[in-house]
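Our platform keeps sequence and structure together, in a single record for each protein. Because each token names a local backbone shape, the row as a whole describes the fold. One such record is reproduced below, unchanged from the form in which we store it:
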Amino acid sequence: MKKFDVAIIGAGPGGYVAGIRAGQLGKKTVVIEKDKLGGVCLNYGCIPSKAIIHLAHLYRKIKWLNDLGFEVDVKNIDFKKIQEWKRSVISRLIKGINFLFQNYGVEYINGVAKLKDKNTIIVNSSNGEEEIYADNLILAHGSKPAELPNLKFDGNIVIDSMAALELTEIPKDLLVVGGGAIGLELGCAFQNFGSNLYVVEIMDQLLPGFDREISETLRKSIERKGGKIFLNSTVEKIEKNSSKAKVIINKKDAKEEIEVDKILLSVGRVPNDIKDEASKLGILTDKKGFILIDEYQRTNISNIYAIGDITGPPYLAHRASKQGIVAAEVIAGMKSAYDYRAVPSAFFTDPEVISVGLSYDEASKNRNVILGKFPFIALGRALAYGFSEGFVKVVADQESKVILGMQMIGEGVSDLSGEAALAIEMAATLEDLGFVMHPHPTLTEAVMESAENALKKAIHIINK
């Protein structure tokens, strides 16, 4: 029986990062993955989706160049060739992870892992069955797309996000069921490629629970480009043939029928099932099957840790990676813990959306707060980029001026999320953010000016 200090089940952005960090800290480590190194994020989610989203964004920019006087003619979009390029990006990143594993002495096994007891894992791989003993276990099993009782994946018409990223043709008419981040990211991308986009959301806004003004800005942007949004609505019935589906949408006060080529079902995620194994070992989970952990990523069993999607939302790769680092460091005896205060959410819709910390509504529930806002229409770099849609918001405590949260919508705002997270993590004040000299002309100036606006001294807008 092989023996390790740390055994990690799952090689997604939580598992492989935990493996690398444990290896850096001198722990004998093994990472076991049943599918592909990098997990869903690298192979079917974060990376391939951003690759496709980026190309869709460039395609929209080509249309804008024509408006400016450039004669650029795209005669055809070879989506099969795009898929080849996407796969080459994934391949390079996987090679990078393998190199790091080898450098830090991390063993990798491609196989199916089952928990036998709190220290033993049974692994079935191409080499047969073997048992592995580890002093510490890190569970990084991940999650999978959820279905609806009346709407199930069929791999043809009704697809999940993974299948959407493998399409070799652009759907003429695309229905996204669920107005959350994943569905809207891909919906916006295919809309930029030319798909007629429909979105059905059961709640009264896109991105439910998010800043409503940002949600409304995104809705208007999608509709301005020809998309149709159904809020307070559900899919009542679908009738499929081999290539299309008729969909009856139940709206608040009426019904509407549409015909589409593809239905992207994106209504949340559920944990990959380890219910029986967890129950056998006495690992505590919530009602939905997500594993319960403390700030050190420990389960109720002292040598078993859990990270990433298997611990519940938010389903973010960088969250999983941070949790993986914390778990590895705690195992190594370091003082490390997970801090939920400044977890950035970045949605690669068109326009992009980010949120870090508290929104105005959340922050104002139990304290007095002030709000600063700066629109991109007043920013030189934004206008030079060819967009003026969107804004930056900053929320701060009224008395101390400590920044509590930041929300943004606009082209390129995902690259501003790091500054927002740093400001909140360091308990920066509005004065701190406004005092820092931000380079001109850049999008970062909008961050500075939003803080200055909260203090009624922004330069390039009227302070109200």
